[in-house]
Design a protein that fits this description.
This protein is of the alpha/beta class. The chain has two domains: 58 residues, no CATH class; 111 residues, no CATH class. It is built from seven helices and eight strands, in the order αββαααβββαβαβαβ. The strands form three sheets. A four-stranded parallel sheet has the order 5-6-7-8, covered by helices on one side. A two-stranded antiparallel ribbon has the order 1-2. It has a two-stranded antiparallel ribbon with strand order 3-4.
Length: 204
């Protein structure tokens, strides 16, 4: 669990437990506090102002959002889209190849507005050409369905884990071009960044 200067880990965890607790009840008046959950052997008393101020700061984190979805059918319905009930996500930013691959398979692509993939900022020992090309092919297949995408940024590293120059195969590059062409039909893209793309040519 990540914590910032606004509170301790125990306070954050207690709040999350309170959100998912079956003992929680509605606050009918602004002046009342509520017994919201059970944590560390005692019940946690939360005044409505504390709850209203702290909860929104946690909503950009996956774990508390998941807890809310489990605690409320309304939240669950609002967080999913389409007949396959994919996760409704507006922005994906990652440096991890596997995170991108798994994320694209689980989110509603029609809801995605920002996608930033930057493996160059991650650990070099995890970067292999075949994994990069697999991620790019999957990304290319998904771009045609990203009808709301406004920002696309892909920053590739200059070298792979073997310290060899990272050069994409022509097949991977052509797949990406097909994906970008499909994306352009939606006419929603406002920002495109492709960094450190080196294409392997015949004889290299």
């Amino acid at each position: 669990m990540m914590c910032d200067g606004a509170g301790s880990c125990s306070d954050t965890q207690a709040l999350l437990e309170a959100l998912a607790s079956p003992n929680r009840r509605r606050l009918s008046r602004p002046t009342e506090s509520a017994t919201c959950g059970y944590f560390g052997g005692s019940y946690l008393e939360l005044h409505w102002e504390i709850f209203a101020g702290a909860a929104p700061q946690l909503l950009d984190r996956a774990q508390p959002v998941g807890r809310l979805a489990c605690a409320s059918r309304g939240f669950c319905d609002s967080l999913s889209a389409g007949r396959h009930h994919k996760l409704r996500v507006g922005s994906v930013q990652t440096s991890c190849i596997q995170s991108l691959i798994e994320g694209l398979s689980r989110i509603s692509l029609e809801e995605l507005e920002v996608l930033r993939f930057d493996p160059s900022s991650g650990p070099l020992e995890r970067i292999w050409k075949q994994d990069i090309e697999r991620a790019l092919r999957l990304l290319s297949d998904c771009l045609g369905r990203a009808s709301s995408l406004k920002t696309l940024s892909v920053r590739l590293p200059s070298f792979d884990a073997a310290l060899e120059r990272l050069r994409l195969s022509s097949a991977a590059w052509e797949a990406l071009l097909r994906g970008l062409s499909a994306l352009s039909t939606h006419q929603r893209l406002r920002s495109l960044e492709l960094t450190s793309f080196v294409i392997k040519t015949q004889g290299q």
